[in-house]
């Protein structure tokens, strides 16, 4: 149990669908992250939020839209995705500028785009 | 953009043997992380290395960092089957921007 939960754990969607991934951390951390893990690529950082403010957008296509309403919750809104977006999407949190900079990862959402 | 290279990408070893995984990175950074991922599971933090010459040990694993050489190593001593997993290094650049290596898939044969 890492203290970071993600829902859903599995998601199948068509290219015209709209869906959202949810991440919640129970660790009192101030920073949250979205990563994409594909089979043939290194783990890719997508977005970073510090104290609810987006501090990093790693050239992610606009069909991925993050939302961070508070320091404990992070969403990734998906629309008009492509088959190449199929991957494992991992959420992580860390203390931020205070505390040891260790990231804690959630279990991930495995996404399949048809 | 920072590049992080791990080698080997695949490692099959016998129980009881020693081996080292290497992590090279292209741009100056003082923060390097090692993670473990079991099949179908998420990433688990193993070590955080925050300065040149840092060495951390936990059980049969020991990690070190040489920031001048831009190199970190993960040394496995007397491997056991339970260490079979994929190991990732990650470099932090410009606070909170993390670049991961491709991972080393370790298989320890009984």
**Average of pLDDT of chain A:** 91
The tally of strands of chain B reads: 11
Q: Tell me the β content of chain A.
A: over 45%
The structural class of chain A is mainly beta
Q: Biggest β-sheet of chain A: count, sense, barrel?
A: 7 strands, mixed
Could you list the spans of chain A in which at least 5 consecutive residues all have pLDDT below 50?
Answer: none
Outline type of chain A:
globular
Number of strands of chain A: 11
- How many alpha or pi helices of chain A? 0
The biggest sheet of chain B amounts to:
6 strands, mixed
User: How confident overall, as mean pLDDT of chain B?
Assistant: 93
Low-confidence stretches of chain B: none
Gross morphology of chain B is globular
* Percent of residues in β-strands of chain B: over 45%
Blueprint of the fold:
The complex is a heterodimer of chains A (114) and B (110).
Chain A (H helix, E strand, L loop, with lengths): L3 E4 L2 E4 L4 E8 L5 E7 L6 E7 L2 E5 L6 E7 L2 E7 L7 E8 L9 E2 L3 E5 L1
Parallel strand pairs in A: 2-11
Antiparallel strand pairs in A: 1-3, 3-8, 4-5, 4-9, 5-6, 7-8, 9-10, 9-11
Chain B lengths: L3 E4 L2 E5 L4 E7 L5 E7 L5 E7 L5 E4 L2 E6 L4 E6 L8 E9 L3 E4 L3 E6 L1
Parallel strand pairs in B: 2-11
Antiparallel strand pairs in B: 1-3, 3-8, 4-5, 4-9, 6-7, 7-8, 9-10, 9-11
């Amino acid at each position: 149990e890492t203290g970071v939960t993600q829902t859903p754990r599995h998601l199948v969607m068509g290219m015209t669908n709209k869906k959202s991934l949810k991440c919640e951390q129970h660790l009192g951390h101030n920073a949250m992250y979205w990563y994409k893990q594909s089979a043939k690529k290194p783990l890719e950082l997508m977005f970073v939020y510090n104290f609810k403010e987006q501090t990093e957008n790693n050239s992610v296509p606009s069909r991925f839209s993050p939302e961070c309403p508070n320091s404990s919750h992070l969403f990734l809104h998906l629309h008009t995705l492509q088959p190449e977006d199929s991957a494992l999407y991992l959420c992580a949190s860390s203390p931020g500028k205070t505390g040891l900079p260790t990231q804690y990862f959630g279990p991930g959402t495995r996404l399949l785009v048809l | 953009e920072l590049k992080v290279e791990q080698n080997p990408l695949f490692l099959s070893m016998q129980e009881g043997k020693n081996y080292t995984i290497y992590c090279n990175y292209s741009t100056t950074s003082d923060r390097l992380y090692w993670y473990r991922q079991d099949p179908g599971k998420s990433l688990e933090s193993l070590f955080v290395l925050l300065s040149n010459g840092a060495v951390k040990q936990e059980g049969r694993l020991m990690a070190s960092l040489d920031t001048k050489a831009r190199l970190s190593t993960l040394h496995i001593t007397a491997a056991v089957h339970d260490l079979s997993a994929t190991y990732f290094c990650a470099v932090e650049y410009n606070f909170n921007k993390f670049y991961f290596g491709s991972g080393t898939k370790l298989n320890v044969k009984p």
